[in-house]
Amino acid sequence: MIPADSATPAPASTGVDSAFPPCFDRATWSAPRKLIEEDHVTIGVAVIGAGMAGKAHIAAYRVAPTLYESTLPDLRYVAIGDINAELGAATAKRYGYERSVTDWREIAEDPSIDVVSVVIANSLHLEVVKGLLEAGKHVLCEKPLSDTLESAREMARLADEASSIARIGLTFRRQPGLAAIRQWIDDGTLGKVLHYSGRYWCDYGCNPQGPMSWRYRGPMGSGALADVGSHLTYLSEFLCGDMRSVAGGTLGTAITERPLPLGAVVGHGLAAVSDDYEPVTNDDYASYTAQFDDCMGTLEVSRVAAGYPNALNIEVFCENGAASFHQDTPSQVRLYRHDDMPGKNGYRTVNLGSDHPYIAGGLPMDVSGVGFGQNEGFAFQARAFLEEVAGIDEEHSLPRNASFDEGVHNMEILAAVAESAADEGKKVTL
Questions:
Q1: What tens digit of pLDDT does each residue of 266-284 get?
Q2: CB 197: neighbour CB atoms within 10 A?
Q3: How far apart are CA 420 and CA 414, in angstroms?
Q4: Alpha carbon of 385 to those of 35, 312, 375: distances in Å?
Q5: What residues does the Gfo/Idh/MocA-like oxidoreductase N-terminal domain cover (predicted)?
Q6: For position 340, what pLDDT does the model report?
Q7: pLDDT tens digit sequence for 74-92
Q8: pTM (2 decimals)?
Q9: Which residues pair with 213 in a beta bridge?
Q10: Which of 71, 336, 346, 348 has its Cα between 20 and 30 A from that of 95?
């Protein structure tokens, strides 16, 4: 076990930090100080939330030690927490965790647990994260940071005062295709971004018989905008730099009521429903225009886009060309360069492999053409968090996860979009 006060949090990143891991040089690499001082170091791991995203975290901690060099201390997979006892027990058995619990406080009180991912309803984040930090746990929280801006700011304050590390997972920053585009922007291959276009269409809410859940409750702006718009928003700054203002905010609810479930609802799946309905109070659709220092961008999200289960699409148009990423082909990006031969130039497909961020030495088959997807991003994220907790210096680590302050910043943008939408699309300066 690693005591909470033995790991010093790194300075908060800017949101546009290094997008790709360093290459490990076995000839010059030296073991981190903490691993030399302690002969039997272990990190105890727990995850609160056994739904779809929770399982992504749970599996990621299993994969994390196999990525890159074996520099992590031993991991002990201690507990899965979920209010659904049957789901928690089945998930713990599936992924080889020692036990499951139905009360997160049991995880907070367990001295053998060091690291905890929080992957539950946004409205529960503050209470649970507060308790975990007070217990000295290192916390990796899913996005968005909370359900309200006030709660998110309180979480950031608690993180600043904590002796342990608190981070938020902005997983798509670790998508190799998007990290490659960021690298091409930085190294001049593409150069300065002139125009950004982002779209995240999902269909998890397209069926009117889909059961009511926490995702459909809350104020306007807490629906599709918070759920998938948070991803699209932090990625826009990852590629374009800081956002300065938003305008043209639009929020809409297409399915205005949903049937109440007869039992537990897990993830986005359908379930048996009753004849009783509850109003949907937040947004199925959202869009806005963003102003960055050097460019403009448009962002659009939906959870009712039938036929598009997970369609994240991003294009950047730059001074030296353009590039696009599509989540349905995540191991490829499309690249256009102005300096191609006139009359023969156009977009080319780049198959991502060992020449691109995160791949070399990380994946078992680290060559182009093999393919990978969204799950690997969670593994890279878990690896980075464990490296920070273990005290491995940044030179020999993946880029650190985002701070809670960055999570607050992301929510401030989403709040500005909701404010714009509530006032006929007015411009809101950040």
A1: 767 778 899 999 999 999 9
A2: 16
A3: 10
A4: 16, 25, 16
A5: 43-168
A6: 64
A7: 999 999 999 999 999 999 9
A8: 0.89
A9: none
A10: 71
